[in-house]
Amino acid sequence: MDTPLIRIRDLCKAYTRGDQSIPVLAGITFDIAAGEFLALIGPSGSGKSTLLNLIAGIDTADSGQILVGDTDIVTLSEGELADWRSGHVGFIFQFYNLIPVLTALENVELPLLLTSLTRHERREHAAHALDAVGLSDRLDHRPNQLSGGQQQRVAIARAIVADPDIIVADEPTGDLDRVSAQDILHLMDRLNTELGKTIIMVTHDQRAADAAHRVRSLDKGVLHVSD
Amino acid sequence: MPVPLSYSYRNLLTRRMTTVLTAGGMSLVVFVFAATLMLAEGLRQTLVSTGLPTNAVILRKGSESEVQSGIERSQASVMTTRPEIAVAPDGTAMAAREVVVLIGLPRASTGKISNAVIRGTDLKSLALRPQVRMARGREPRRGSTEVMVGKNVAKGFTGTQIGDRLRFGKREWEVVGVFDAGNTGFSSEIWADGDQVMRSFGRDAYSIVVAGLRDYGAYEAFRAGIEGDPRLTAETFRETRYYEKQSEMMAKFLRVLGVSLTIIFSLGAMIGAMITMYSAVANRVPEIGTMRALGFGRSSILAAFLAESVFLSLLGGAMGLGAAAVLNFFTFSTTNFQTFSELAFKFALTGDIILLSLGFSVFMGVLGGLPPALRASRLKIVEALREA
Amino acid sequence: MFLIRLIVKNAFRHTLRSFLTILGITVALLAFGLLRTVMDAWHMGVEASSATRLVTRNAVSLVVPLPLSYRERIRGVPGITHVSYGNWFGGIYIDEKNFFANFVVEPESYLALYPEFLIDPTQKNDFLRDRKGAIVGRKLAERFNWKVGDTVTLKGTIYPGQWEMVIRGVYDGARPDTDLTTLLFHFDYVDETMKKTSPSRSGQVGFFMLGITDPDLAGEVSRAVDDTFKNSQAETLTETEKAFQLGFVAMSEAILMAINLVSYVVILIILAVAANTMAMSVRERTAEFAVMKTLGFKGPAIASLVLGESMILSLTGTAAALALTDPLAQAFGSTLSQYFPVFAVSRETILIGLGAGVFVGLAAAALPAWRVWNTPIAESFRRIG
């Protein structure tokens, strides 16, 4: 087997509420291979979203390592993390989190502002990404003119437009009807198989978990292998 | 069924930052509003308390103030022999002929020259003004070039301490005492011997005659006697009325200035309240839908949001009044337009001003809160719930 | 460009709120501009005064007169070209609220000292010949609708009685800051009446107005005049007309200071309103900013979005206010011309207004921008989730 893309070692994270310290992740160790489609499941409060946030570099760990390639992202500063995210991670959220005043095209273009692409190239890439999710006829629509499923597809286009290696998804089907959910899962599967993206998804939804290639469950901050 | 008031004020507590900013804007408006009214009131109180109701002041007809007035010696002796005038223990009439001139003195704070009143007094001047008491030093000797200064003069002008020498009217005058006339216009004056003042300024006429009447009711007869006398071209006033008149122009100016400023300023504060309340309504659309569904009527919703806005403005009003109340401890000193002389007075916070200020802030709250509250009350239940 | 478009779109996302905020800023800065213009108008008399005119008054105080007999001795001081004299008359026209400045002067020499008073030669002649004649400034004439030939009666305050006079001329100003709200009439008219009714007060003037050959001589001439009367019955104080006017302004200093202070309070009021708008905008957009951070945008970029939005609102309001200040000041000035002969918005006022607008934009954004900059992403999501 190849060297894993992501190696997580003894990862710990606790939140403080008042003067109490509540452990969320209690020393997690596991690997994620390049090209994997992994689902993290578990009851609410199990720490799965926290784990996802840590892997995605939008939250900071108390101790442990997250090695992505040769980089331990736990040691990166906030600014370095931001640069790292823009190059390596694409995000899909439960509530899509599109910017309401921007069109679909502009929303997808947004992450490209952080690259050195020209305006023309940006537009081209964004249009291409929207085309890939089947929305080439919705470029100039605002989020509130789109259905939930369409909005989530715009969000997926935004996630892949900068060509990251890793895509993290937090309950991507949580706010969608069955048909749209199926649609989105199918799209994610294509990202994984056709484009070779490593996908890490947190979900409650059994159908979503079934779509993944590997499932790991978290309970009370401890990881269980369930496949 | 009314929505409980606690709903309205708890919502203010929840969004603290916005509440503080909005109320803060309003408090500044109320502060300016209250401060100018306090200034006008302080000026009025100072001048009104300067006079005694049983004293009458006689000026030359048509003169606006004692500085412009002039009364010839012969006329003055006619005036002081009126039967309505009380008799002093020594058997003479309780009346004083005084001469009033302005001199320029450097102000302690800025070094700039301001006008101070020199009152050339008569034997009975002090007896006619029981509110004047010696604070330090002694009274000037009659017939000498000694002076005593009011406490505000001692505080506000340089070179006016006991032992200092003032130079005016070609002579040097030694300060021998400081007197306290409380919160009255006299505290801003310098008193010297009347004959000496007239001699050094080369004046032949008195400025005014002050008469202590036998009783309050004797005034009308006195006035009729003076103003009806063909030998005299004089006007009489009750002393209280005379000083109140001195404050009118200035107090009116302050009031007009203050009120017009606050009206313009309140536009800004009302807009602030409107923004806050519109946002409050927008953020709580599902909540409003729920309450409507529970059975609260449109008017209850309207009242609840209006109450929230009024609470907000009352908070602002209270903050503004609190800041204005601190001004109570400050003395303001400016030139009175009518006499051209420097007058020190305190900001005065009265019950009326408190009520007016709070009324004004409620007014801002209602005006600013009404459009958003109307919007809240007009929401359709189903649509409001759907936004949840 | 992309980010600027995003900022503009954000600024007008809540149309009503943006409109109200801009309106608030406009109203406040208009008030600020007007207040400053009022204060400028107050000081304007000083600016308009000539450096070649000196005023001699009693050293004791303005209201103590000088003997007219001083005139010849003043004329003897070298460097002086003209000597005129007069007094503040302080007359009331019908009612106290009709206040305007009125002086009794020696007309021929006074007009010679004031070349900026432009008056028709025939009218001027009529005025000089008629002992009961008066001239008035154009604005004053318009205010009371006075025409040449009208009879006006003033009630004396310093000089008792009813004083009847005939308007013989209306003067205009050679410069925009010339005071056109004054009434002038003959000193002799008043003085001769005083001779009969109150002899002790005749032959007394309130001031001498001196013309000098060269403004550089002002200090020297002033000293020479005052030295002439040292240790006499009435010592004099001579100063330039400018210093004399400043003395008037200084009297109302406390009020001016209060107005000055209050003009900045209005900026604070509007700052509170703008800061509130920004705080609400940012709070509502917590999730959006978190998403942008997630995508890799850093604190400064996000903060500049907030700042830019605040600046757009503030500067739009400021621009509207600055554009409206002058027309409003004109309207204001014509109703207040009785108090302020000149009412013009200065460049400085415009610049300070602009500065205040920028300040409000920056300060209103400061706290919200700092917050979005520093709030960790995970916490933002938690707050909405």
Number of helices of chain C: 14
Derived structural class of chain B: alpha+beta
Question: What is the overall silhouette of chain C?
Answer: elongated
Q: How many distinct domains of chain B?
A: 2
Q: Which segments of chain C are poorly predicted (pLDDT under 50) over 5 or more consecutive residues? A: none
Query: β content of chain C, as a range?
Result: 15-25%
Structural class of the secondary elements of chain C?
A: alpha+beta
Mean pLDDT across every amino acid position of chain C: 85
Counting structural domains of chain C, the number is 2
Number of strands of chain C: 13
Q: Give the % helix of chain C.
A: 55-70%
Order of helices and strands of chain C: HHEEHEEEHEHEHEEEHEEHEHHHHHH
Please, what is the average pLDDT of chain B? 85
Q: Between the first and last Cα atoms of chain C, what is the distance in angstroms?
A: 32 Å
Helical content class of chain B: 40-55%
Q: Please count the beta strands of chain B (DSSP E, at least 2 residues each).
A: 12
Rg of chain C = 30 Å
Low-confidence stretches of chain B: none
Our measurement of the CA-to-CA distance between the termini of chain B, rounded to an integer number of angstroms, reads 24 Å
Q: What is the 3D form of chain B?
A: elongated
Descriptive account of the structure:
By secondary structure, chain A is of the alpha/beta class. Chain A has helices at residues 48-56, 78-88, 104-109, 119-132, 148-160, 178-195, 206-211; strands at residues 6-17, 20-32, 37-41, 63-68, 71-72, 89-92, 166-170, 198-202, 214-219, 222-225. Chain A has 7 helices and 10 strands. Chain B has helices at 5-14, 16-50, 73-79, 125-128, 151-156, 194-200, 219-228, 239-283, 285-294, 298-326, 351-378, 381-386; strands at residues 55-60, 95-106, 113-121, 133-137, 146-150, 165-168, 171-180, 189-193, 208-212, 234-238, 331-335, 342-346. In chain B, strands 1, 2, 3, 4, 5, 6, 7, 8, 9 and 10 form a 10-stranded mixed sheet that branches. A two-stranded antiparallel sheet of chain B has the order 11-12. In chain B, helix 2 packs antiparallel against helix 8 (239-283), helix 2 packs across helix 10 and helix 8 runs parallel beside helix 11. The two termini of chain B are 24 Å apart. The mean pLDDT of chain B is 85. Chain C has 2 domains: 2-45 and 253-384, no CATH class; 60-234, no CATH class. The two termini of chain C are 32 Å apart. Chains in contact: A-C, B-C. The interface between B and C is large, with 60 and 55 residues.
